[in-house]
Structures are given as C-alpha cells and as structure tokens.
Amino acid sequence: MTTPPRIRPAYDADERTQLLGWLDMQRAIVHWKCEGLSEEDAHRPVLPSSPLMTVAGLVAHLRWVERDWFEMIFLGLPGRGPKFEGAPDVEDPDMRVEGVPLADLLRDYERQCARSNEVIAAHELDEKGRHPDFRAASASLRWVLFHMIEETARHVGHLDAIREILDGETGYY
C-alpha cells in the first residue's frame, strides 16, 4: 500500500477526482504528521482536558470513522470495532490504543482508506447510504465525501497542534 501524495487536485479536475483528491491529501498529511515520532510521543497526551487525544488515538479514530461512514452507514454493513464491541459506557473507545504500536495503527488506517476508496470507486456520487438504523444513511456518497474531508482535516489540525507541542515540528503540507 502506498500513502497518497500530499498534493491538491487539479483545478479543472472532475468532481469525483477533486473530492477524492482533497480527502487523499488530508489522509496523507495524517501519515506525515506521524513521521519520526517515538512510540512514547505518539501515545503522549498533551491536552489536560482530552487525555485520549494523542497522535495514536487520532489515527485509530480516523480509521474507525472511515469504516463507519463508508462501510457501515453507506454500504449498510453491521457495526464493527471498539464502539460496537466494547463496553457501551466507555467514552471514546476508538481512541483507547494504549500499547498498540503507531506503525500498526497507521497500517490499519491505510488499509481502511484503501477499502473506502474501493467503495467510492464502485458507487455514484448521488447514491444514498443503506444502513436502516442510521438517519445519516439518507446522505449521498457526495455528502459522505464532503463530511470525511471535513472530519479528516479537522483532526489533521489537531495532529498539527499536538506535533508542535510534542517536538516543535510544524507545517501544513
């Protein structure tokens, strides 16, 4: 698997290419923000009010968000992962990754993004989600792509701030 390049889509690209291009660029920045981090730093909480918001926790969260939106809500597959298989009263179970190596989390995220891209390639942008238990399934694939760009970019901003606090590294792309 190959992480997509950190480049913006062409100004004149078609809609699908632009949407996927922007999403892939944000996904690539996630990988970039993790480069060179020690395991200790990847799992180090730096925000007192958000102890689970670590680099490792954010990568795990993004992996499960990809799965939830593209496979569960859009395709209608059953819920899977920490939110559905753990204790129901545990807050943010998808970000609880103590002891899981960052490299494993990044590999899982990359695989999930590749699976999401397969889903995107196989469906029309106007096609609606299928999960009967989620109101969000009424959203089109286009809407899901916009949402995932927003979701990923928001967490890239978190990663950027966390990385600067950890070791002073900065930069957008």
> Which stretches of 5+ consecutive residues score pLDDT under 50?
none
Derived from helix and strand composition plus strand pairing, the structural class reads mainly alpha
The arrangement of helices and strands along the chain is HHHHHH
Helix segment count? 6
Helical coverage, percent range: 40-55%
How many E strands? 0
Distance between the termini: 21 Å
Q: Can you characterise this structure?
A:
The structure is a single chain. The protein has 173 residues and is an all-alpha fold. Helices cover 55% and strands 0% of the residues. The protein contains 6 helices and no strands. It has helices at residues 15-34, 39-42, 55-74, 82-85, 102-121, 141-167. Helix 3 (55-74) runs antiparallel to helix 6 (141-167). The longest helix is centred in the C-terminal third of the chain and has 27 residues, at 141-167. It starts with 14 loop residues before the first helix and ends in a 6-residue tail after the last helix. The model has no long low-confidence stretch (mean pLDDT 94).
